[in-house]
Amino acid sequence: MAKKQKKPAPADKKEVKQIRIRLFDDRVLVKLVEVENKTPGGIIIPDTVRKDSKEGRVVAVGEGKRNEDGRYIPMRVAVGDRVKFGGYVDSEDKMRIDGEEYLLINESNIVAVLK
């Protein structure tokens, strides 16, 4: 009988590195993803015009916020999700772990999960 072969994980999912960190409440640790510097029409966007990356891959999530009864409200994002987020990102929200830069944001700052 032939062994069933595992499907290879999508390249995007392989990017997620295991990090030993415990986040509180609705905090989300995101690894920033480079955004394409060319439009679909082929126009190259110079760095002086391009905005900072507001897209990333979720690396770790907290347990969620507590409601008035003390129960956790489940998180809507999971490790491995590619997310788009908005709002002002303070330098205090950035952190380095094992030489790589990550961003610590609240789940409420995430505006979309990209499929």
- Radius of gyration computed on alpha carbons: 17 Å
Number of helices: 1
Major β-sheet strand ordering: 4-5-1-2-3-6
The CATH class is Mainly Beta
Written description of the protein model:
The protein has 115 residues and is mainly beta. It has a single domain (22-114), classed as Roll (10 Kd Chaperonin, Protein Cpn10, Chain O). 3% of the residues lie in helices and 29% in strands. The protein is built from 1 helix and 6 strands; from the N terminus they run αββββββ. It has one helix at residues 11-14, and strands at residues 27-32, 55-61, 82-85, 94-97, 100-106, 110-114. It has a 6-stranded antiparallel β-sheet, with no helix packed on it. A hairpin with a 2-residue loop joins strand 4 and strand 5. It is elongated and about 50 Å long. The N and C termini lie far apart (36 Å). The model is unreliable at 1-14 (pLDDT under 50).
